[in-house]
Amino acid sequence: MNLTLEQIKNITLGAVRVKHNENGYNFYRFTEEQQALYKNRSNDFYHKTFSTSGVQLRFLTDSKTLFLSTAVERGSSRTYFSFDVFVNGNRTDSLSNFDETTLHKFYAHDPFPFGEFSKEFKLGDGEKEVKIYFPWSVSAVIKEIKLDDESFIKPIKPTKKMLCFGDSITQGYDTLYPSSKYTTRLAALLDAEEYNKAIGGEIYFPDLSNTKENFEPDYISVSYGSNDWNRCSKEEFTDNCKNFFGNLVANYPNTKIFALTPIWRKDMNEFRQFGDFADTHKTIEAVTREFKNITVIKGFSFVPQDENLFADARLHPNDKGFELFFESLANKILNS
Questions:
Q1: What angle do the packed helices 279-288 and 234-251 form, to 10 degrees?
Q2: Which whole-number Å values give the CA distances from 153 to 15, 30, 59, 88, 117, in the listed order?
Q3: Would you say 236 and 227 are in contact if contact means Cβ atoms under 8 Å apart?
Q4: C-beta atoms surrounding 166 within 10 Å
């Protein structure tokens, strides 16, 4: 049984649009208005809007097998990808372009092929919940998704919705498995649908937060500051930060907003025009003090200062680093 466009739409989470064309089924995490902003802002950032970070398929079925065929293209500066398939809450298998490869310890910039990939997954007997986590690192088009003939499929929806703004770490750099991303784990903890608006390399971009979704999110997470420290003056950072959060609060005055400040980075003691890296946290805290629905969460110690927890040995956590990141963040949020 090949799933139709309507069936796929019904089981999709985290995409604001799903469209079918001659290439297959396309999943978009940014609205057309938001993509237009990025097309004018940066060609690199615009390409990253096509990444499928945060997109999921989630459903009940009694099918014993699942066949998935995909085509992947650039969606970040990384070339590895994985689709993670979970059955009843456990990862049973993945479709990736690195399974046959011995990965380097610091694999972030290793080259991997794009193109078409497919796999059949064994789901087991009886009724079960299936989740398919899409890659954060590439633009992934579904060519075909098939269940057993005569099987049923029923969508499962979380009770809440969460918007996630941020830079590369929020997009997912450098997890091998998209289910390891901190935003994905946080959404699951909060029983929320993740809408991921993160772009690798991004800073506070007030024009983005000035756009509004066609739904009212229950939660918003915001995590910038590391690239801002690397690229901006403190004055520019302060203005961008204030305007970004001002727009968010104006659009969503009743939504709980978590402002995450940057994690450790290996070059933090180098000179930048911004000044002291620790001032990113202080500035975000000062700027957001006037907004009653914003909680600032200090992220500096979320991932220990150990290069073995970073896929590039300096900035972007690997899967173990993200596990520690999420555990720290979850503790803060549950006690906020």
A1: 40
A2: 19, 27, 6, 15, 24
A3: no
A4: 23
Q: Is the pTM of this model over 0.90?
A: yes
Distance CA 166, CA 322 (A): 15
d(CA 304, CA 191): 28
Q: Measured between alpha carbons, how far apart are the two ends of the chain, in Å? A: 46
Q: Are strands 160-166 and 219-223 parallel, antiparallel or unpaired?
A: parallel
- Reduce the DSSP state of residue 171 to 3 states and report it: helix
Cα–Cα separations (whole angstroms), residue 114 to 45, 72, 121, 128, 317: 19, 6, 21, 31, 23
Beta strand residue intervals within the chain, DSSP E: 12-13, 17-21, 24-28, 56-61, 65-74, 82-87, 90-96, 115-122, 128-133, 138-147, 153-155, 160-166, 192-196, 219-223, 256-260, 294-297
Q: Would you state the structure tokens that stand for residue 39, as one six-digit string?
A: 């097309």
Measure CA 130 to chain center: 20
Residue 308 has what DSSP assignment? G
Is there a contact between 121 and 92 (Cβ–Cβ < 8 Å)?
A: yes
Q: Nearest 10 degrees: CA dihedral of 14, 288, 314, 29?
A: 20
Per-position pLDDT tens, the chain of length 336: 999 999 999 999 999 999 999 999 999 999 999 999 999 999 999 999 999 999 999 999 999 999 999 999 999 999 999 999 999 999 999 999 998 888 999 999 999 999 999 999 999 999 999 999 999 999 999 999 999 999 999 999 999 999 999 999 999 999 999 999 999 999 999 999 999 999 999 999 999 999 999 999 999 999 999 999 999 999 999 999 999 999 999 999 999 999 999 999 999 999 999 999 999 999 999 999 999 999 999 999 999 999 999 999 999 999 999 999 999 999 999 987
Name the nearest CA neighbour of 314 among 273, 259, 275, 263: 263
**Maximal C-alpha separation, the chain:** 64
